[in-house]
Amino acid sequence: ACGKCLVDKCGAQVTACSKATDCNGALSNLEPCACDPDKTPVMCETAFTADGGDQAPPLVDCFNQNCASVCAM
Predict the structure, then answer these.
(1) Which pLDDT score is estimated for 25?
(2) Cβ distance 60 to 42 under 8 Å?
(3) Distance separating alpha carbons of residues 69 and 73, to the nearest angstrom
(4) pLDDT digits (tens, 9 = 90+) for 21-71
(5) Which residues, other chains included, contact 1 with Cβ-Cβ below 8 Å and sequence gap of 6+?
(6) Which of 14, 4, 7 is nearest to 58 (CA)?
(7) Which of 6, 9, 26, 44 is the most buried (most CB within 10 A)?
(8) DSSP secondary structure string, 13-25?
(9) What is the reported pTM?
(10) 67, 48, 60: which is closest to 8 by C-alpha?
(11) What are the C-alpha distances in Å from 2 to residues 5, 15, 28, 54?
């Protein structure tokens, strides 16, 4: 459901991130961070935003507005 939400609601932001080297690298680090029991979602989001360059904040904003509740389940 989370992945579908991202594609449906934030597809343009995901595509832009995947095409930007720094953002794509940060995106690939996001899942391991989210699955680490020592990390909080806020810590992972902050690291992604800091490491992802210009394309990261629009993806974070879209995620928070459209998919955060779906992905938290």
Answers:
(1) 95
(2) no
(3) 7
(4) 999 999 999 889 988 899 988 999 999 999 999 999 999 999 999 998 988
(5) 70, 71, 73
(6) 14
(7) 26
(8) HHHHHHHSHHHHH
(9) 0.87
(10) 67
(11) 5, 16, 16, 23
- Label residue 53 left, alpha or beta by phi (over 0 means left) and psi (-120 to 50 means alpha): left
How far CA 11 is from CA of 4, 19, 35, 66, 67, in Å, comes to 10, 12, 23, 12, 12
* Res 63: pLDDT: 93
Q: Which single residue is written with the structure tokens 């995947």?
A: 18
State residue 31's pLDDT score.
84
Structure tokens at 51: 């490491």
For 38, phi then psi, to 5°, come to -85, -5
